Please model this.
Amino acid sequence: MVKIAPLASWNNYPKQICTLHRPERYRQFSPDVESAIARGLGRSYGDAALNEGGQVFLSERLNRILVFDPVRGVLRAEAGVSLDEILRLIVPRGWFLPVSPGTRFVSLGGAVASDVHGKNHHCDGSFGAYVSAIQLALPGAGWVDCSPTANPEIFWATVGGMGLTGFIGEVELQLRPIASAYVRAQHHAASNLDGLFDLFADPDRDAPYTVAWIDCLSSGNKLGRGVLMTGHHAALQELPIGVRSRPYDLPAVKALSVPVNLPGWALNPLSVSLFNEAYFAAQARKRAPFIADLRSFFYPLDNIHHWNRIYGAGGFVQYQFVIPEPGASAALRELLKRIASSRHASFLAVLKRMGPAGSGMLSFPMLGYTLALDLSLRDPDLFKLLDELDELVIEHGGRVYLAKDARLSAASFRKMYPRYGEWLAVKNRLDPDHQVTSSMARRLQLGSAA
Ligand SMILES: Cc1cc2nc3c(=O)[nH]c(=O)nc-3n(C[C@H](O)[C@H](O)[C@H](O)COP(=O)(O)OP(=O)(O)OC[C@H]3O[C@@H](n4cnc5c(N)ncnc54)[C@H](O)[C@@H]3O)c2cc1C
Model:
């Protein structure tokens, strides 16, 4: 199939005309054209999986699971297989993903190319740390196998490399054993940012999975109030008696759906602050630990299909940055003050703790804290605010996440990603004519001098 069509990713911005190919076999997945990029399930926010005026190779038909060893927990699959399909196979057999983003509707190739992180980054690192091998198509050079030991520089330029080293065909992944399909979770409310950081730092509340929701519209002595959510995979004895005999069965859930794009006025500072008030009060009441199934703990938004439509047809952006330790709490306070005073209403604001950086040359995570905000594009001065936030992020030694980016400048990118020169040397060796390219690569001038 070849089709010329407008294409956008999850946040519906930007929308660009691309030539779409949908190969049936990954051997047809060839970057031997002038300008091509691979695309998974389009769950990135921005232009990483777009190629305006060029070719986009969809990997949705390349979704075969090739090997699953239920004894060692090793899986090899084509890159277009979704994490959802993997979970359906592995959870009933006692395995889980080693690292999982906040949606299961991403492809294996997309998870590697963005080196995604989950709620356990502070304990376990990012996705690439569990990938034992990749098969990669290079322009004009066929296929190459790479791993942390074979062609390691190609491997670590590809993990987090946003699809720009070539097309990932197959991925081998080490899974995590679990005793049940449930998590023992607990919520802890904090009335301001200091309280939230105290909760993150409290060893009694430390858990393999932690994430906090923040009310970005609160200010004054409530600035940064939020709810820390913690959890660990539930052992059999922690499950309710009725569930213990079938610990890997997930309860049926009725998914909701947003049927159409909502009108622009639906999300505004008033509606978001009313939601935040009600949400904070409800969560603050839930003090006791509770048992949640994997899907509702890890992927709460997946139960609302097309939730991106609440931002209307014009779309939105997600701004996700990380600030390194030490100094993260003071820097976050400064950034939150700036965001709260701008009255840009972020319906979703998520704070996570991160552990040390992995080996991916362009990977996002670093030791510190990361905040992600969804922001409507209807606000005319939004990009001006985000440019100011970029300056603060750079000043504090942090960076913006490329998988969530649609508007960063090339100059800011270079200040945020100090290993770009190293990555560029591998890119130039693999793809000297820069045939593998995307709209993001052109915007950030990925390929030009470091
Ligand atoms: C609701 C939601 C929650 C999210 N939560 C998180 C989170 O907690 N943590 C996190 O890290 N991310 C998160 N993300 C972002 C998401 O995990 C990443 O953007 C991921 O890369 C999307 O995968 P995809 O298959 O949709 O890839 P796409 O969006 O299609 O592409 C993303 C990048 O991967 C490249 N790519 C895709 N397939 C291949 C391939 N076969 N070969 C080479 N390159 C390829 C593309 O070229 C592009 O650069 C979230 C996204 C959503 C919508």
Observations:
- The chain has 13 helices and 21 strands.
- Residues 65-178 form a domain with the Uridine Diphospho-n-acetylenolpyruvylglucosamine Reductase; domain 3 fold (CATH 3.30.465.10).
- Residues 9-10, 37-44, 48-49, 59, 79, 101-103, 106-107, 109-111, 113-114, 116-118, 162-163, 167-168, 301, 403 surround flavin-adenine dinucleotide (CB under 6 Å).
- The longest strand covers residues 182-190.
